[in-house]
Amino acid sequence: MRLVVALGGNAIAPAGTGGSAPEQTATISAAAGPLADLVADGHDLVLTHGNGPQVGNLLVKNELAADIVPAMPLDWCVAQTQATIGFTMTTALEAALAARRVDRPVVPIVSRVLVDADDPAFHHPTKPIGKWQPDGTRRLVPSPEPQELLDRRALEVLMRGGALVVAAGGGGIPMIETPEGLRGVEAVIDKDRCADLLARTVDADRLVILTDVEAVAVAFGTPDQRPLHDVSADELGRLLADGEFADGSMRPKVEAVVRFVDRTGRTAAIGALEQLAEVVAGRSGTRVHP
User: Fold this and answer.
1) Rounded to an integer, what distance in angstroms lies between the CA atom of residue 47 and that of residue 4?
2) What whole-number distance in Å separates Cα of residue 55 and Cα of residue 51?
3) Which residue in the list 56, 169, 171, 191 is annotated as catalytic?
4) Which residue in 52, 130, 253, 271 is the catalytic one?
5) Residue 253 is a catalytic residue
6) Is the pTM of the predicted complex or chain greater than 0.90?
7) Nearest 5 degrees, angle CA 233-CA 236-CA 237?
8) What is the pLDDT of residue 195?
9) Which among 8, 19, 127, 271 is annotated as catalytic?
10) Which residues of 121-148 are buried (b: 16+ CB within 10 A; e: fewer)?
11) pLDDT at 222
């Protein structure tokens, strides 16, 4: 199968860790083995990733160093995190493939994604990024809907050449059309919604979203919490409509898999990064079917 596999930013930098480069590299390296096994078994992969904790950290550095160096805009921060996570994923997966004697190039693309300049999200920030603050809050930024992968042609050329591509990391760099041409904007596109767009763009057989929890759950955080292991897109859609899942948490992931399954008639899964192989095989996580 052709799989689009999305690694969550919080899965790469889990809560309780410092989020240092060595820690994130170790997490990505641990995922590279199961990813390489999928390739060795004949699956085709397109990879993407989140960047909420990482881009949030860059904004903190902006603030701390504002009197010393110019602060970088949010679209630049997205591009920087795409590059750092992308090259780390590439290096780890290359090594894992080589250990399995699989000869496939791995190529990261610093990807741009078109959004609507009039998207109402610009007036209602909902995307949490960075660490929790001592007062129990997190920074919220606009999260417009992804409309088009602007680097689709490059992606298609690389895939036709046999490459495993890391694309649309962090939801992609948000770009709007202006009379003067394309321009980056201050926002972070939700990685999960863009993963759905990426999966449909590359005609994927399955969308797999990996995070830091084992499965989607209803009544989350209550004594009645119950994991969902096998569920239809219709049922998940009803739960979404009932407000079961929180913005900035599980809701975008559920929206993404429901959209993908509804629009393609194919399957999707949500599960824990450390159980990647079991999630893909359908032995763990939440399996979503038409």
Assistant:
1) 6
2) 6
3) 191
4) 253
5) yes
6) yes
7) 85
8) 97
9) 127
10) bbeebebbbbbeeeeeeebbbbbbebee
11) 86
Q: What is the pLDDT of residue 206?
A: 96
Phi/psi at 119 (nearest 5 deg)?
A: -60, 130
Amino acid at 249: S
Token digits of residue 150: 């602007």
Q: Where are the beta strands (DSSP E) in 68-172?
A: 106-108, 112-114, 127-129, 139-141, 148-149, 164-166
User: Quick count: other Cβ atoms within 10 Å of Cβ 181?
Assistant: 7
Residue 131 appears among annotated catalytic residues: no
Q: Which of 8, 9, 86, 285 is catalytic?
A: 9
- Count of CB atoms within 10 A of residue 233's CB? 21
Residue 175: strand pairing partners:
114, 184
Residue-level pLDDT at 248? 64
Structural tokens at position 110: 């610093």
pLDDT in tens, 88-125: 999 999 999 999 999 999 999 999 999 999 999 999 99
Structural contact between residues 213 and 286, judged by C-beta atoms closer than 8 angstroms: no
Residue 166, burial from CB neighbour count under 10 angstroms (0-12, 13-18, 19+): buried
Is-contact 151 196, C-beta < 8 A? no
Q: Write down how long the chain is.
A: 290
181, β-bridge pairs: 178
- CA 117 to centroid of chain Cα atoms: 22
What does the block give as tokens for 18?
């410092």
- Alpha-carbon Rg for the chain, nearest whole angstrom, is 18
Regions of the chain where pLDDT drops below 50: none
9 is catalytic: yes
Whole-number pLDDT of residue 169: 95
CB 37 within 8 Å of CB 100: yes
Bridge partners for 178 per DSSP: 181
